[in-house]
Design goal:
alpha/beta, seven-stranded parallel β-sheet, four-stranded mixed β-sheet, 34% helix, 27% strand, binds NADPH dihydro-nicotinamide-adenine-dinucleotide phosphate
Length: 328
């Protein structure tokens, strides 16, 4: 029997989870829940239906795992604990500083209801966190580096769009190649913010807008751009649509460390991602963790978990014997 999946929130991630379910034959999409009028939300799966979120509780026995696809800023802090009352849940909460608080809230709800809630699943947090943990546990005498990009930063793109005279814009975060090379060579460099990443902006300005002022406002914007070397390109609306409508991302998690009595040997561990679509990749990670949530719940586990608490075998559609035969 397949694992019955529900999606709550149908944005980029919700659509990505729908695609990921299609690529995992042991998962089946049963329902999509939205806060909008369900008749306005069109999904791709013929065998599933769209419901208003208020209908979700009634379907608690028809769904094995509910995947929460709302935004981290305001949706998930409220939605994940709420729906953990009725469902096993998985979310992709990515406000790193607020993870402890979110964990406590979901743990309380899921422990009381007897469900499993896996939070902060994706690539960062998620696969990057896991790789940082593995590398730290192995190379205890070393240094961690995380580089992001090349990819679109939604927050920085929003910040550009809020500037007076800007019609639309996209921002890419790009790792500095020389810094990456120094880290890969085991040089253990001390890197400032400016030395690790650059920022590249593609901006559509309103007609007659003062381009020099816009460029200056971007480059000097505190917290977003002032600590980086930033390049600004003014382009047309058509060019933005044609060349910059994707949501690519990726990055590198690297740890270099020393072993030997006198630290004589160096080692470098690197995990890298190059993603055409950030939400579709994130959703593929979520699908694997939804399988884990179901299995852990079947075993009687409950409460909140993160990627650190889920043994790798729970993620795979293959059983233990198959895994030992092919992957060991
Ligand atoms: P979106 O803005 O696309 O969607 C968020 C919510 O907004 C949806 O669940 C949906 O809820 C609502 N919404 C979407 N489209 C519309 C629309 N046209 N009109 C009105 N409401 C709409 O966000 P993403 O899916 O891109 O990202 C969700 C979260 O995923 C992000 O906040 C981020 O924190 C997290 N994330 C985590 C990653 C990780 O590595 N851990 C990586 C990438 C993202 P409803 O259907 O109820 O209206």
């Amino acid at each position: 029997m397949s694992i019955r999946i529900g999606i709550l929130g149908y944005g980029n991630l919700g659509r990505g989870v729908e695609c990921a379910v299609k690529h995992n034959p042991d998962l089946e999409l049963v329902a999509v829940f939205t806060r909008r009028d369900p008749s306005t939300v069109k999904i791709l799966t013929d065998t599933a239906s769209v419901y208003h979120v208020d209908e979700a509780e009634k379907m608690k026995d028809k769904i094995d795992v509910l995947i929460l696809c709302g935004g981290s800023a305001t949706d998930l802090p409220e939605q994940t604990p709420k729906y953990a009352q009725w469902f096993n849940v998985v979310d992709s909460f990515d406000t790193h500083a607020r993870v402890p608080e979110h964990f406590a809230n979901v743990d309380k709800a899921a422990s009381e209801s007897g469900h499993v809630g896996i939070i902060s699943v994706g690539w960062d947090p998620g696969m990057f966190s896991l790789n940082r943990l593995y590398a730290n546990a192995i190379l205890t005498n070393g240094k961690d580096y995380t580089f992001w990009g090349k990819g679109v930063s939604q927050g920085h793109s929003d910040a550009i769009r809020r500037i007076d005279g800007v019609k639309d814009g996209k921002q890419y975060t790009i790792p500095v190649e020389a810094a990456l090379e120094a880290v890969r060579n085991g040089e253990n460099p001390e890197l400032t913010t400016r030395q690790k990443h650059t920022r590249e902006c593609f901006v559509v300005a309103e007609e007659g807008a003062d381009l020099a002022r816009i460029e200056n406002e971007i480059k000097t914007m505190p917290n977003y751009f002032d600590e980086y070397d930033t390049t600004v390109h003014f382009i047309t609306e058509e060019e933005l649509k044609r060349d910059h409508s994707g949501i690519p991302h990726g990055g590198f998690v690297i740890r270099s460390g020393k072993t030997g009595w006198n630290d004589e040997n160096s080692h470098v561990i690197e995990y890298s991602l190059k993603l055409d679509s950030n939400p579709e990749f994130t959703s593929s990670v979520i699908a694997a963790y939804a399988r884990a949530a179901y299995r852990m719940s079947q075993e009687g586990q409950k409460g909140c978990k993160t990627v650190f608490d889920v043994a790798p075998a729970y993620l795979s559609a293959q059983d233990g014997a198959e895994l030992r035969k092919h992957l060991l």
